[in-house]
Amino acid sequence: MDDLDFHLSQIAKILGLAKPLGFMLSYEFGDIWIDVYLEKGEEGWSGRTYTISVPKGKEERLKKLAENIGALPEEVISDHERAYLSLAYEDWEAVSPVIMNLL
Predict the structure, then answer these.
(1) Contact 66, 78 (CB under 8 A)
(2) Is 38 exposed, middle or buried (0-12, 13-18, 19+ CB in 10 A)?
(3) Can you say whether the dihedral through the CA atoms of 37, 5, 45, 68 is positive or negative?
(4) How confident is the model at residue 102 (pLDDT cuts 50, 70, 90)?
(5) Is the distance from CB of 32 to CB of 103 less than 8 angstroms?
(6) Which contiguous run of DSSP H or E holds residue 27?
(7) pTM of the entire structure?
(8) What is the DSSP letter of 81?
(9) d(C-alpha 94, C-alpha 11), whole Å
């Protein structure tokens, strides 16, 4: 992850920003979005959080997914545009094959 730290620092420097404390990658699979957030801690880039989101009106789809992977449907939150389910790295690793098969 030293390469990641170097490259993110270089990008921040070019943009005139301070060293980043977090970094997010976003992936789009049609109307399903997956965001991966990395947090910088004392031990480097860790603390990954994965968030799956679907358009408003399709939150039942996400609640059903939550049930299938052992999360509570109440863990699905919504705003005016999308519904979201966030998973810690360990949970994501356990269920990612199921999620990828659904994509």
Answers:
(1) no
(2) buried
(3) positive
(4) low
(5) yes
(6) strand 22-29
(7) 0.81
(8) S
(9) 33
